Amino acid sequence: MIRVENLSKHFIRQASGRWQRGKGEVVQAVKDISFCAEDGQITGLLGANGAGKTTTLRMIGALLKQDGGHILVDGVAVQAGQQATQAQMGVLSDARGLYPRLSARENIVYYGVLHGMSREQAHQRVDVLAEVLELKPILERRCDGFSQGEKMKTALARALVHDPKNIILDEPTNGLDVLATRALREFLRWLRSPAGGSKCIIFSTHIMQEVERLCDHVVVVAHGKTVAQGSVAALLSQVGATDFEDAFVKLAFDQSAEPSIQTRSAA
Ligand SMILES: Nc1ncnc2c1ncn2[C@@H]1O[C@H](COP(=O)(O)OP(=O)(O)OP(=O)(O)O)[C@@H](O)[C@H]1O
């Protein structure tokens, strides 16, 4: 189970103009995000571009340190850069970061070994994941020159190689064709089921269909804040809509617009 409470994070974006030296824009990427992702459920973070989804997932994956708030993974506090929660976490972040000179198989096995698997175990797991994610045709090819979808499938397999209990996926269907998207959806449903290990799965998206088809719990994020959460049915009834896209637009955009960017002297 992953519990996120009152998470916040800002970035300083340096101004580039000659007369702006020393000034910076404060980008409050995440202002106040709270939700709970249960085991055996798929939780979707749904929000417009720039809403703060990636930043939130990177903090949960211990890739970024939060300014405020708490993240508990199975009761253990997440600390950026520390190993405590990472062993049981599979993270597909926006930076796919594959080694171009290694084959898809080598990239995945390498991560498995880093997670403490023997090479034999890691190779066995690659064969299982290659079947499910339809990776077989590219498994022995160097990643250099891979298409977006091929990179995505390889990065997904790499994130899941150590069979983590908690799975964090940032826009996992980005670049996948319709068959690969369907295969991934099926796989996520299986991972959520008792047979697949009742994993705790969080993913971000702005695709409504994906949320409607997959999510048990939806967290709507706007301007860095949680503005609504619940099942698809609960969110529909909250705003009296029958179409989920209409519900999302009401929930995410009917908020009074709050700027995320302010100019100030950079510290
Ligand atoms: N390293 C950074 N430096 C400066 N600003 C950043 C940085 N990372 C994110 N931001 C800003 O924080 C805000 C939230 O970004 P984030 O990537 O979390 O949004 P998102 O919901 O994932 O968007 P998208 O759906 O477009 O991927 C945006 O305004 C973005 O420009």
From TrEMBL:
GO molecular function, a single term: ATP hydrolysis activity
Alphabetical UniProt keywords: ATP-binding, Cell membrane, Membrane, Nodulation, Nucleotide-binding, Transport
Residues in ABC transporter domain copies: 2-248
Signal peptide stretch: none
Acyltransferase in keyword set: no
Matching Pfam families: ABC_tran
Entries under SUPFAM superfamilies matching the protein: P-loop containing nucleoside triphosphate hydrolases
InterPro entries: AAA+_ATPase, ABC_transporter-like_ATP-bd, ABC_transporter_ATP-binding, P-loop_NTPase
Spans through the membrane: none
KW Amino-acid biosynthesis (keyword) present: no
Listed PANTHER family: ABC TRANSPORTER ATP-BINDING PROTEIN, ABC TRANSPORTER ATP-BINDING PROTEIN NATA
Family: Belongs to the ABC transporter superfamily.
Protein's recorded name: ABC-type Na+ transport system ATPase component
Organism: Solimicrobium silvestre
